[in-house]
Amino acid sequence: MAxxxxxxxxxxxxxxxxxxxxxxxxxxxxxxxxxxxxxxAHLHRALTALRRSIPxxxxxxxxx
Length: 64
Fold this sequence. Notes:
Oligomer: single chain
Distance between the termini: 19 Å
CATH superfamily: Winged helix-like DNA-binding domain superfamily/Winged helix DNA-binding domain
Order of helices and strands: HHHH
């Protein structure tokens, strides 16, 4: 998906771990060497960007 590839690498990593691999925020943070707040921020920014770039997602719930 092109929209996913356009995300910054860290946001892609967070999306992959949180949504695709269904890891929790703490585990994701530990794996990436980030705080849980930073993981949450990256996920929020990534989902916002994906919603904007894929209009069909604007009406769907994208939450972990």
